[in-house]
Each structure stands twice: as structure tokens, then as C-alpha cells.
Amino acid sequence: MAEETGATAPAPLPVEIRPAGPADAAAIAAVHQESRRVTMPYLPPQRRSHGEVTHWIRESVLPRCHTVVAARGPEILGYAAVDGDLLDQLYLRPDVRRTGIGSRLLAEAQRHSPGGLTLHVFQLNTGARAFYAHHGFAVVATGDGSGNMENLPQLTLRWTPAPSAPDPQDRP
Fold first, then answer.
1. Span 5-25, pLDDT tens digits
2. Structure confidence by residue, pLDDT tens digits, 95-127
3. Is 39 exposed, middle or buried (0-12, 13-18, 19+ CB in 10 A)?
4. CA neighbor of 122 nearest in space, from 109, 103, 139
5. Pairing of strands 66-72, 15-19
6. pTM of the model
7. What is the spatial distance between Cα 18 and Cα 63, in angstroms, rounded to a whole number?
8. Most exposed among 55, 112, 153, 168, judged by the fewest C-beta atoms under 10 Å?
9. What separation, in Å, do the N-terminal and C-terminal C-alpha atoms of the chain show?
10. What CATH topology corresponds to 7-170?
């Protein structure tokens, strides 16, 4: 109808990367569960309810980790959680993958841990492995799955920033 009346659709709200708070826990949990369900079909069916995952986000992840969300207005599109130099979580709603939002969340995690980041990824998660390789992460260890609740083989990846070139103005 907009074409017939000459009206244009309003521009979508910009995506903002902002600190996560307790009020975001339910939306973060929904992103977490939906992303895992859609992008990792090899995982066993979800055993935890939305309420249990919300509680885990609110009571464990948010107090322990530097957590940011990608939000478009009131909508939470994704989140990243960093615990020290460990990128503990980075999940997106499946419908916003490959739009640059994951890269923006990762850039914020890297800004928060400028000395480098480590993360764990399932070996079967080829999409995530390609994403992290594209952003300069390299495999530093492999695991047989005995260290995760899914019992799936995993990789440990590490990003270390390139040393910065000396500033020519610092020379005598």
C-alpha cells in the first residue's frame, strides 16, 4: 500500500551495542535458546526451561561477565559475555546472522579484553569456526568433549592482537 499512497516506510532503528542489565535477562535467554536450537541442530533437545535459562543469565552470567547486547529499540538481537579474557558467550537471533551484528559484538568483546580473547567452540559448529577464523582467531587446543555438558568435541580458539607499530614521533 505504501507505494500507492506515496508514503515510505520508516527507517529501521539503528542497532546499538550497550551494557546488559538484569531487565534484559529474559530476552537474552530467548536469544540464547533460539540460536542454539536453530544453528546447532546436532545438540540434544533443550533440557532447561526458558525460566531456568533466564535465571542462569540473571544470577550467573550478568554478575560474573562483562555482558553487552545488540539492541534495536527494545528488541535484543544478540549478546556477548566476557569473563576475564574468555569470550564465554556470543549468540545472535538466527534472523540477524550475517548482518554485521556479531562482528560488532565481537569488536566490543575485543575492546574490553585488548590483550586477547580465548573461547571454546564445538568442532561441529562450522559457522562459528569460520566467523572466528575470519576475525583472526586460531586453534590453540582441542578437547574430546569430556569438559562440556554436551559431551561434544570442542576447539579452544585464541585471538591475540597484532603488536602495534611504534609511533614514529616516539623516536629521538
1. 556 777 778 999 999 999 999
2. 999 989 999 999 999 999 999 999 999 999 999
3. middle
4. 139
5. antiparallel
6. 0.86
7. 16
8. 168
9. 68
10. Aminopeptidase (3.40.630)
57 residue type, one letter: I
Residue type, 46: Q
CB within 8 Å of 94: residues ≥ 6 apart = 34, 35, 38, 39
Q: Give 71's strand partners.
A: 16, 76
Amino acid of residue 89: Q
Assigned C-alpha cell, 96:
540477524
Note whether 81 and 24 are within 8 A (CB).
Answer: no
DSSP assignment of the chain = -HHHHT--PPPPPPEEEEE--GGGHHHHHHHHHHHHHHH-TTSPPP-S-HHHHHHHIIIIIHHHSEEEEEEETTEEEEEEEEETTEEEEEEE-GGGTTSSHHHHHHHHHHHH-TT-EEEEEETT-HHHHHHHHHTT-EEEEEE-STTSTT---EEEEEE-PPPPPPPGGG--
